[in-house]
Design goal:
This protein has about 70 residues and is mainly α. The protein has a domain at about 25-69. Helix content is about 70%, strand content about 0%. The chain has four helices and no strands. The protein has helices at about 1-20, 25-40, 45-55, 60-65. Helix 1 (about 1-20) runs antiparallel to helix 2 and helix 2 crosses helix 3. The longest helix is centred in the first third of the chain and has 17 residues, at about 1-20. The protein is globular and about 30 Å long. It starts with a helix and ends with a helix. About 5% of the residues are buried.
């Protein structure tokens, strides 16, 4: 049931992100989708927790470095 809720939430976020396709590049859309999904799933804004949820292939140190704006 939790997986189903997460899937539904991810689909809704994807629809919202797609509405901004004129303003965002594909990598930006993917970043927003993954970050928002991670925030909702972990109930946290902590990048370490979000990267753990996303099962990033690179190390957490590199995930945090790439997430800086």
């Amino acid at each position: 049931m939790i997986g189903e809720i997460t899937k539904n939430m991810k689909e809704k976020i994807l629809n919202i992100v797609r509405n901004f396709h004129d303003y965002l590049t594909k990598p930006q859309q993917k970043y927003i989708l993954e970050m928002l999904s991670g925030c909702f799933a972990t109930r946290s804004l902590n990048l370490t927790a979000i990267s753990g949820y996303l099962n990033e292939k690179c190390g957490i140190k590199h995930t945090l470095k790439n997430g800086e704006i």
